[in-house]
Specification:
It is a single chain. It contains 15 helices and twelve strands. By secondary structure, the chain is α/β, with parallel strands linked by helices. A seven-stranded mixed beta sheet has the order 7-6-8-9-10-11-12. A three-stranded antiparallel beta sheet has the order 2-3-4. InterPro entries: Bacteriocin_synth_cyclodeHase, ThiF_NAD_FAD-bd, Ubiquitin-activating_enz.
Length: 412
């Protein structure tokens, strides 16, 4: 291991013997007591030295025997250490492609803040290259999601849609103006490829006519049709449910952006559950949906570029968090944001007992929380502080109330 204090976190001294790593409540930690010599030693933890060399440097700086190992161990347990050479064979392969890695360094740094273990972020970034994701819908939202996922390192992003690119499909980061008149799916796949010039070679021989979603880690449903966003058709997701493929809804309807639910088939609420619940609340719901779907007049859709891009960004973030295994906060929930206030809020999508997806038979769990259950508490304070650190909103409060004197602690 070549330990490196996570370079994504800015460092500052709160007083003579307390160091703060990071600036924001979500990811910052303070550690102490730490003497000045140890503090200076932190500069050497930059990933260029292995432990034997670090111990040698420690002796040279008159640090006590075993101090370097203790320091690295404590920093590691606090989730502050990355391994400049860790992450496994796939990570080594990615490091061997400096062009690809240079482009993704900010993404890697972001991953390092949501993964506690040394080398874990690099391992996840490298693992993205083997993933296959399909995006259905290549309008202002879907084409941008596809580009974001490809740009973030997802190895294969397939896009499905019909028709040809219309002028109002054009969006920054999505379909370019030059693509007007071209096949929508092809133009969107090309846009996605352009976002990842260093992508790995395709493992499958190009898009087939078979829309069967087998082999995809995730399917993103981002319809251009606003009724399909507001009232997703359970029948359209049936093959995904049958094959057990996780899928995520996203789109814009009448200046309201929607992200979710992320459906884990048989485990969390699906489009059918959502529909059943709406019928329970409003018996006229099916009549309205039938009228919306059959409307002869196709109104101009209220889907401004800024909102469409916001939705695409959040959907891609939720998709990546799920693919990386670091969060499922849109499972069992629909995140909605409306102009002009633009405040996201989540509406629950409960598993419905009348829905054939079977999610209601699953042991009831609320919408999953990021990080929940991933890091079982171990003895020692540092792990506990890491737990507090990951639940950002409670960080300040819990840390202040449970701070054993003289131990390493976390608060901002
Ligand atoms: Zn269901």
């Amino acid at each position: 291991m070549h330990p490196m204090v996570k370079p994504a976190l800015r460092r500052g001294w709160r007083d003579l013997n307390t160091v703060q790593f990071g600036m924001t409540p979500a990811h910052a930690l303070t550690l102490g007591p730490m003497d000045t010599a140890t503090g200076s030693f932190l500069d050497l933890l930059d990933g260029t030295r292995g432990l034997p060399l670090l111990r040698e440097e420690g002796r040279r700086m008159d640090l006590p025997d075993g101090h370097v190992d203790l320091l690295v161990r404590r920093l590691t347990r606090a989730g502050l250490v990355d391994d400049a050479r860790g992450g496994g064979a796939d990570a080594d392969a990615l490091r061997a492609r400096p062009g690809a890695l240079d482009r993704l360094r900010p993404d890697l740094a972001a991953l390092s803040l949501v993964t506690p273990g040394p080398g874990e972020a690099m391992g996840l970034l490298a693992a993205r290259r083997a993933l296959r994701v399909q995006v259905r819908g290549a309008g202002r939202v879907g084409a941008v999601i596809a580009s974001l996922l490809a740009g973030a390192g997802v190895g294969e992003v397939d896009v499905r849609d019909g028709g040809r690119v219309e002028p109002d499909d054009v969006a920054p980061g999505g379909l370019p103006a030059e693509a007007i008149g071209e096949r929508r799916d092809e133009a969107a796949r090309r846009a996605a490829r352009r976002s990842a010039p260093d992508r790995p070679p395709r493992r499958t021989p190009g898009p087939s006519a078979d829309p069967e979603p087998a082999g995809f880690s995730l399917v993103v449903l981002a319809p251009r049709d606003d009724v399909a966003v507001h009232a997703p058709d359970p029948a359209a997701a049936q093959p995904l449910l049958a094959s057990g493929i996780p899928h995520l809804y996203a789109g814009v309807v009448e200046a309201t952006g929607v992200v979710g639910p992320l459906v884990l088939p048989g485990e969390t609420g699906c489009a059918g559950c959502l529909q059943q619940e709406r019928v329970d609340r409003d018996p006229t719901w099916p009549r309205l949906v039938a009228q919306w779907r059959s409307g002869r007049r196709r109104p101009v859709r209220a889907c401004d570029l800024a909102l469409a891009t916001t939705v695409a960004g959040l959907a891609a973030a939720h998709a990546l968090a799920f693919l990386d295994g670091s969060g499922q906060s849109s499972a069992g929930a629909r995140w909605e944001v409306s102009a002009p206030a633009f405040q996201w809020h989540a509406r629950p999508v409960w598993a419905h007992p009348a829905c054939p997806c079977g999610a209601a038979d699953h042991p009831p769990e609320g919408p999953a929380e990021e990080g929940e259950g991933e890091h079982p508490a171990e003895d020692g304070g540092a792990h506990a502080t890491m737990g507090e650190q990951r639940h950002s909103q409670e960080l300040g409060r819990t840390a202040h109330t449970a701070r054993p004197a003289g131990t390493w602690r976390a608060h901002v």
